[in-house]
Design brief:
The complex is a heterodimer. Chain A is 36% helix and 19% strand. By secondary structure, chain A is α/β, with parallel strands linked by helices. Chain A has a domain at 8-111: Peroxisomal Thiolase, Chain A, domain 1 (3-Layer(aba) Sandwich). In chain A, helix 1 crosses helix 2 (63-69). Chain A is globular, with a radius of gyration of 19 Å. The relative contact order of chain A is 0.20. By secondary structure, chain B is an alpha+beta fold. Chain B has two domains: 3-328, Thiolase/Chalcone synthase (Peroxisomal Thiolase, Chain A, domain 1); 342-361 and 396-471, OB fold (Dihydrolipoamide Acetyltransferase, E2P), CATH 2.40.50. Chain B has 13 helices and 22 strands. Chain B has helices at 18-25, 43-54, 80-88, 105-119, 140-144, 190-213, 230-240, 250-255, 262-273, 310-314, 322-328, 349-354, 356-360; strands at 3-10, 14-17, 33-36, 65-69, 95-99, 124-131, 148-155, 161-170, 176-177, 186-187, 222-225, 279-285, 288-296, 317-318, 363-367, 373-374, 390-394, 400-408, 418-425, 430-435, 448-459, 462-471. In chain B, the strands form five sheets. In chain B, strands 5-4-6-7-1-8-13-12-11 form a nine-stranded mixed sheet, sandwiched between helices. A five-stranded antiparallel sheet of chain B has the order 20-19-18-21-22. The chains are: A alpha/beta, B alpha+beta. At the A-B interface, helix 4, strand 5 and helix 8 of A face helix 12, strand 18, strand 19 and strand 20 of B. Strand 5 of chain A pairs antiparallel with strand 18 of chain B.
Chain lengths: 394, 474
Amino acid sequence: MDSIKDRVAIIGMGCVKFGENWEQSLEDMIIDAAYEAYEDAGIDPKDIQAAWWGTVFSGETGQILATPLKLSYIPVTHVENACATGSEAIRAACYAVASGTYDIVMAVGAEKLKDTGYTGLPQTRPIATWSYRLTTQTPAAVFAMMATGYFAKYGLTHEEGKKLLAQIAVKNHHNGSLSPKAHFQQEITLEQALNAPMISYPLGLFDCCGVSDGAAVAIITRADLAKKFRPDPIYIKSVQICQGPREGWISQTYDFAHVEETYRCGIAAYEEAGITDPRKELSIAEVHDCFSITELTIMEDLQFSPRGYVKDDIEAGTYSLEGELPVNTDGGLKCFGHPIGATGLRMLYEVYKQLQGKAGTRQVKNPRLGLTHNQGGEPGAATVSVLIAGNELG
Amino acid sequence: MAGIVSYGAYIPFYRLNRAEIANAWGTRVATGERAVANYDEDSLTMAAAAARDCIQGIDATKIDGLYFASTTAPYKEKQTAATIAVVLGLPQEAITIDFSGSLRCGSNALKAAVDAIDSGTRKSILVCVADNRLGFPNGPDEMAFGDGAAAVLVGDQEPIAVIDHYYTRYHEIQDIWRSDRDTFVRTAEDRFSMDMGYSKTMTDCISTCLSDTGLTESDFTKVAIYSPNQRQLQRLSKKLGFNENQVDSVMHWSVGNTGSAMGLMSLVAALEQANQGERIMLANYGNGCDIFSMTTTDTVTKCKDRRGIKNHLSSKSMLTPYSKYLRWRELIEVQPAARPPIEARQPSPVAQWREVPWELRLTGTKCQQCGTPQYPPQRVCLVCHTKDKVEPYTFFDKPAKIFSFSHDYVVQSVDPPVTVALVDFDGGGRLMCDMTDRDTAAVEVGMPVEMTFRRLYYVGGIYNYWWKCQPVRC
């Protein structure tokens, strides 16, 4: 089995300001993100040879992308893999280039959630399976069970657990305050997080990411062509996707204190990228903090912290902007919200900018390798993508 | 000769203090409390619960009939008995009948069951009766009514009570009714209804029955008698010469008038206290009267472990404030949650039909290769990946514990928060489901739970029934 490592590179990216973009349509956001990416890559729109379009709730078929961008009779593929949809679009685009079929392709992710008229995500599940057997399947309800599960497994009291989660929200809001494209750009205090209204016990308001509109685009080419476009392309070291068989909902052996798909996907990605000590070798990580508890367990599943000991690292500031391994340097889903199809590409946008040294006031020092972790589904039944990118070949 | 082989009952967990109702409306203080079905309960689910109580330790595949009786069946056109028969696991050729139309439907069903047994065409018929009627808000019925269910198994093998005598009379009278357009029960002028309806019919029928059998009032240890309220019960008892020991008032003080279920619930309460060789009368009312006289046998104490009336009564939570009752019964419109509309979750009749056993009986699979129970049914084993070597495995009756849970405050629900739980069954298998009849502050990891059949929601004309877990009730 061969690897994707150093076979493809990103030469341009675009990302709109995420938020309640009342005045922008889906098409507006796609156009703004795509033209920022074209300009960043220094290419003409007609140079794009194929496109992968990721959205869950914002329309079907590649037509949704081709129409606003006036793509001229090129292949456009609509991909969907729940909340990891954006990363699935990147993966497909990378493999198409690595196959030698195309030289320049585009991966696009966008979602217009705030036209629905309510908070949360639209209902799209098929009627025949799980959807009508539970009163609630809000993501908050299921992820909250992972918080309960984690607290129980590691003997944390409710207060201890809540405080741990609140520290993650405070950290991400600090980073978000330095991100001009974030939906939420204000700092919060520990007390604010702890005293916030309950959304799904034990998760409060600041344990949950926002609901936002957004779009992001990546232009991908062959690694050997990349420097023709720019002096600082970003090379793909690994791009993995992992699906579990809903084990956590069926089997008693599953502890509901971690996400097995994240652990397995991390292992696969590290192997592909040739990483043996992720905590030491990675410079930054953009992870799927749809809820604070998700970020907490990801730190253990991606082997940044030993199992059951993430508390020590959170309290030591290991994952803060100045820490040993900065996590969610742009504020994460907590501050960008989660326009489903766009999120994976938004994460990559931050890694791309950081690796190029263009992350402004939140720039980390001398980054070399960055990771994105994009998770769809729920604990016990997840779809996880892990991508690793670097600013040097080899 | 036909008799009662087993009994069971169901009283909802929630009780509404009548003083709470009086307080809400600013009317004079009332005494006692009434049972209120949770928002996820109806006559079908309550009857199913009473039926499960009744057939504890009894092989459901040997029961060849199920009669459901109620004036508040969930569907006007779709059989409730068939649904309950699947839940309980009755054989495919069991006779299922829905009885309705008057408060006498429960005793009508009992009589039909007795006749079927005596005729020899059936061996064992489960009669279950439930009601959750609505009285007009700020009216006497709202105070007096209660929700509940009873079930009796009728057969001729080892009965705990043998039916000795039956007497009936029909009576055309517009005293209590609910048309197909009504939500609330209507009554004619109180004095007319009582004098010419309930009181006259019951007095005449019971007197006739006694003279037919040559028995006197004092020959009965207990009299299980339908009555609209405590006052009428007292009045009738006095008129007929029954004393306080014979006529139990517990239904009115603690449950309320449960409509068509009241007669059989009173009978269950009487049987719970009965000893061998006692005579019990069941007198039920509703456009006429049904009277059964029965004598207990030496096996009458074998059903004492039932939850019945007594144990259900002591397991309760007080519903407060009164406005929750209005919301549960959907008598007021409240601000909807800012969430996707429930219409998006319309159940598919096709999928429901295809999945009947695993939906209504909570039947999953057990891998014949590695022995792992799994829900929902899996064709490819999660553990050993063997394909199509599975046997049905039913979860609803297995003891279980909470592995994890959350309380969701943002979901569209009649009564937020919704508690959702991961349930681990003794013997293997895990299920994610809602938790009901719980005190949110008391829910914890490791808590023992049991499964209860409930109504999840109603959309597009379809009641969506499935299972929830609840803290072990009694």
